[in-house]
Design goal:
By secondary structure, the chain is α+β, with helices and mostly antiparallel strands. It folds into four domains: 32-349, Glycosidases (TIM Barrel), CATH 3.20.20; 359-479, Galactose-binding domain-like (Jelly Rolls, Sandwich); 489-557, Immunoglobulin-like (Sandwich); 565-693, Jelly Rolls (Sandwich), CATH 2.60.120. Helix content is 16%, strand content 32%. It has an eight-stranded parallel beta barrel with strand order 1-2-3-4-7-8-11-12, surrounded by five helices. Strands 13, 14, 15, 16, 17, 18 and 19 form a seven-stranded antiparallel β-sheet that branches. Strands 28, 30, 31, 32, 33 and 35 form a six-stranded antiparallel β-sheet that branches. The longest helix has 17 residues, at 2-18. Residues 8-17 have low confidence and may be disordered.
Length: 694
C-alpha cells in the first residue's frame, strides 16, 4: 500500500509538472508574416536603375529612357551570388526617385518599354522573379513614393498612378516577401518639364492606410517596410549598425515616413513600444548605393563586413546588404569576392557549437517542469525554451563544458513569439575556481551575438539581470572563431607618415609603394615610415605559422599635406587642423548659418584637378555639407568663378567620400564654401579634405 501511494505521488508530481502553464505573452508580439521575415535574417538589396547609367545617386527625372541599356544583364548571376553568400532573398529597386520603372508599366512612358534594351521588350522585374524561383530565393520590391519625373507628383492624380504601379508589381511577379518604401519624399525635380521644387505633407499625402490595403489584398504574406513600418522599420542609419539597445517594439502611431526626428528618437525602438516593428539594417557594400566606377576600389573589406554582421544580426536586426549592379547588369566581381569572404568567415566563426548538448542548470525553472528546463537552451530546437516562474526576472543558466574550453563568441536568443522581454544580462566564465564577468549587455530579442576576448573556462554562466517578465530563452550557443587573415589597413598622417596595420596580432606585413602587387619578397613592414610624394601603397598580411596570405590592400595617396594650414576665419582654431590629420574619425564641425567658408593655404602652388570631401563621420548630430562651391586662388585674395559647385546627393544617409574632378588649375589657396547643411541640425563639417593634383 505504501508503495502504491508513493507511485501515485510521483505520478501526480509528473502530471503537475507537465501541465505547468506557459508564460503569458508580453505585448506586442510578432505576426506570422513578421516571424517568417525574422527567420530570413539576411538578404540582398539591388540598386540597379537609371542612376546606374547616369552615374548618380538620385536622378532628377529628366533622363532619356534610352540611356538604360545593360549589355550583359543576368539576374541569375545575382541570384547565384546571393545564394552562395547565404542570403535568403533579393529586394530590387523597381522604381527609384527619378521615376524610371524597370518593368513595362502602363502608368508612365518613363520605363524600360521606351529603352533600346531588348528593343523595349525587356522586364527586369520578371527576369529577377524567375531567377529567384530557380535559386529558391524570395523576391522583394522597392517602389519609391517620390517621383521626380511624373508631372502629376504632388496632386491626387499621382496617388492613383502610384497605386496602379503598386498593383502591377503585386500582381504580375509571383510571391513578394517585402515591399520597401523610402522616406525621401518631395523636393526639386523634372516633373514633366516643370523643373521646380514640390513639397508634400509626408504624413497625409500618400494616404498610407489605403495604400497598404493593396499589399494586404494582393500579397498578404509580404511585410511592409518604411520608417514607421507597419511591419518592418528602418534602423535609422545606412552604416550597417543596429544599436547596443535595440527593441523590436515601436511607438508606431507617432511616426511617419521621412520624419525628420526619426533617427534620433525612434530608430532604436522603445521598451514601451505599442507595436512589434523590428529593425532592418540596410547598408551598401560600396560607399554609394548605385554603381560608380570610381568606387571599384572602395568595396567594403572583410573587417568592415564582419563588423556589420555582428552589429546588425548580432543586435536584434535583420541585415540587408546592397549590391550596386554595374552597367553590364552584373554584380561586380569585386563585390562578389568580398561578400563570399564574409560568407566563409561567418561559416567558420559558427562552425562548432561548444555548448551543444552540454549539461545546463538553472537557478529557477518554471514550475520545476522539464518542459522549461535549462537544457532547452542547448538542444538546438527553436520550439523549446528555458523559462522561470512568473515574477522571477533575475535568474541564471550555467553551462558546464566538462573540461577547460576556449571560446570567443556567445549567442543568445529569446523566443520572440512571446514578446521581447530581457532588459539586461551578463556572461561570466569559471576558471581557476572563480567566476569572472566577461561581458554585460542590455536587449536580446531574436538574436544577440557577443564577440568576446579569447577565454578559457570550464563553465559559462548566463544571467538575466532585468526583464519585463519571466525570461524565455530558446538558444545559447558558444563558439571559437578562428583567426582571420585579411588585408591590412593602410593610412597616412598629415606629414606623410604611412601606417599599416594587421587585423590580428602575430602576423607579418609586406608592402610596395609603386603600385605593384606585394609578396614575401617585398619590403617587410616593421614600423611607420615617411613617404613625401604620391603613392599607391599595396600591402598583404602573411601568417608565418600557417603560410596563409591575405588579399592585397590598396591605398592611393596624393601629395602629403605637410605645408597645409587653415587660414581665414578659423585659422586660430586648433580643432580646424583635424581636417588634415589623416584620421577619418575626427572632424572640424561648426554650428553657424550658411554660407560657411573653409579656406586653406597649401603652402605652394599646385596644379589642382579635383577635390575629395569626407563629412563628419560621427553617428549622432554630425556636420554634413549638402550644397557647395569650390574656389581657387593664387594669392588668397582674388577668387575667380567656382571651379566646382553642386550638391552631394544622398550624403545625409550615406556620408562617405565625395569626389569631384575638373579641368586643372594652378593655385595655392582653396576656398570650400558650404552653402547649406544636409542635417536638420544646421551644422557643417569636414572630417577630411584632399585635392587631386596633376
Amino acid at each position: 500500500m505504501t508503495n502504491r501511494l508513493f507511485y501515485l505521488f510521483v505520478l501526480l508530481i509528473a502530471v503537475s509538472c507537465s501541465n505547468v502553464t506557459p508564460p503569458e505573452p508580453v505585448l506586442p508580439v510578432p505576426s506570422e508574416r513578421q516571424l517568417a521575415w525574422n527567420d530570413m535574417e539576411y538578404y540582398a538589396f539591388v540598386h540597379f536603375n537609371m542612376n546606374t547609367f547616369s552615374d548618380m545617386e538620385w536622378g532628377f527625372g529628366d533622363e532619356d529612357p534610352d540611356l538604360f541599356n545593360p549589355t550583359e544583364l543576368d539576374c541569375r548571376q545575382w541570384a547565384r551570388i546571393c545564394k552562395e553568400a547565404g542570403m535568403k532573398g533579393i529586394i530590387l529597386t523597381a522604381k527609384h526617385h527619378d521615376g524610371f520603372c524597370l518593368w513595362p508599366t502602363a502608368t508612365t512612358e518613363h520605363s524600360v518599354k521606351n529603352s533600346s534594351w531588348k528593343n523595349g521588350e525587356g522586364d527586369v522585374v520578371s527576369e529577377l522573379a524567375d531567377a529567384c524561383k530557380e535559386y529558391d530565393l524570395k523576391l522583394g520590391l522597392y517602389l519609391s513614393p517620390w517621383d521626380r519625373n511624373n508631372p502629376e507628383y504632388g496632386n491626387e492624380k499621382y496617388i492613383e498612378i502610384f497605386r496602379a504601379q503598386l498593383r502591377e508589381l503585386m500582381t504580375n511577379y509571383g510571391d513578394v516577401f517585402e515591399v520597401w518604401f523610402d522616406g525621401a519624399n518631395g523636393g526639386t525635380g523634372y516633373y514633366g518639364g516643370a523643373n521646380e521644387e514640390r513639397r508634400v505633407d509626408k504624413l497625409t499625402y500618400y494616404d498610407w492606410e489605403n495604400t497598404y490595403k493593396i499589399i494586404r489584398e494582393l500579397q498578404p504574406e509580404a511585410v511592409i517596410f518604411s520608417d514607421a513600418g507597419p511591419d518592418v522599420r528602418w534602423v535609422g542609419n545606412e552604416h550597417g549598425y543596429a544599436y547596443p539597445t535595440t527593441w523590436s517594439n515601436l511607438l508606431r502611431d507617432e511616426i511617419y515616413g521621412g520624419m525628420p526626428e526619426y533617427s534620433n528618437k525612434y530608430s532604436r525602438g522603445q521598451e514601451n513600444g505599442t507595436h512589434w516593428v523590428p529593425a532592418e539594417v540596410d547598408v551598401s557594400i560600396r560607399p554609394g548605393w548605385y554603381y560608380h566606377k570610381y568606387e571599384d576600389h572602395k568595396v567594403k573589406t572583410l573587417p568592415q563586413l564582419l563588423d556589420i554582421y555582428y552589429n546588425s544580426i548580432g543586435r536584434n536586426g535583420s541585415l540587408l546588404i546592397n549590391f550596386p549592379v554595374d552597367t553590364r547588369g552584373l554584380i561586380h566581381e569585386k563585390d562578389e569576392e568580398q561578400i563570399l569572404k564574409l560568407a566563409e568567415a561567418v561559416k567558420a566563426d559558427f562552425a562548432v557549437d561548444l555548448a551543444a548538448g552540454k549539461k545546463a542548470e538553472a537557478t529557477n525553472v518554471r514550475g520545476n517542469s522539464k518542459k522549461y528546463k535549462a537544457s532547452n537552451v542547448t538542444d538546438d530546437d527553436p520550439d523549446t525554451y528555458w523559462s522561470t516562474d512568473d515574477g522571477v526576472i533575475q535568474a541564471s543558466v550555467t553551462i558546464d563544458f566538462g573540461e577547460e574550453t576556449t571560446f570567443n563568441r556567445f549567442v543568445v536568443q529569446e523566443d520572440i513569439r512571446l514578446g521581447q522581454r530581457v532588459k539586461a544580462f551578463s556572461v561570466e566564465a569559471y576558471s581557476n575556481n572563480k567566476w569572472e564577468e566577461i561581458d554585460s549587455q542590455t536587449t536580446i530579442g531574436r538574436k544577440r551575438i557577443l564577440r568576446l576576448p579569447e577565454t578559457t573556462a570550464s563553465k559559462v554562466r548566463f544571467t538575466v539581470q532585468d526583464s519585463k517578465a519571466c525570461p524565455v530563452i530558446t538558444k545559447i550557443g558558444i563558439y571559437r572563431a578562428p583567426k582571420v587573415i585579411i588585408e591590412p589597413k593602410i593610412s597616412r598622417t598629415k606629414d606623410g607618415i604611412i601606417n599599416i596595420e594587421a587585423f590580428d596580432s602575430g602576423l607579418d606585413i609586406y608592402y610596395t609603394v609603386d603600385g605593384s602587387n606585394p609578396d614575401v619578397n617585398s619590403l617587410k613592414y616593421t614600423a611607420p615610415f615617411n613617404w613625401a610624394q604620391k603613392a599607391i601603397v599595396k600591402a598583404i598580411v602573411v601568417d608565418p605559422n600557417e603560410n596563409r596570405t591575405s588579399t592585397v590592400s590598396v591605398a592611393e595617396f596624393d601629395i602629403p599635406k605637410t605645408l597645409w594650414k587653415v587660414v581665414g576665419k578659423y585659422k586660430d582654431d586648433e580643432k580646424a587642423n583635424l581636417i588634415f590629420d589623416g584620421n577619418e574619425n575626427t572632424a572640424f564641425t561648426v554650428d553657424e548659418s550658411a554660407p560657411v567658408d573653409f579656406v586653406f593655404d597649401l603652402g605652394e602652388s599646385l596644379k589642382i584637378a579635383g577635390f575629395k570631401y569626407l563629412p563628419d563621420q560621427q553617428r549622432f548630430d554630425p556636420g554634413i555639407i549638402f550644397n557647395y562651391k569650390l574656389y581657387l586662388s593664387s594669392d588668397g585674395k582674388n577668387w575667380k568663378q567656382p571651379v566646382a559647385k553642386g550638391e552631394f546627393s544622398n550624403i545625409r544617409n550615406s556620408p562617405v567620400w565625395q569626389t569631384n574632378s575638373f579641368s586643372p588649375v594652378n593655385a595655392r589657396y582653396i576656398k570650400f564654401t558650404a552653402l547649406s547643411p544636409a542635417e536638420e541640425n544646421g551644422k557643417v563639417g569636414i572630417a577630411e579634405f584632399e585635392i587631386i593634383t596633376q
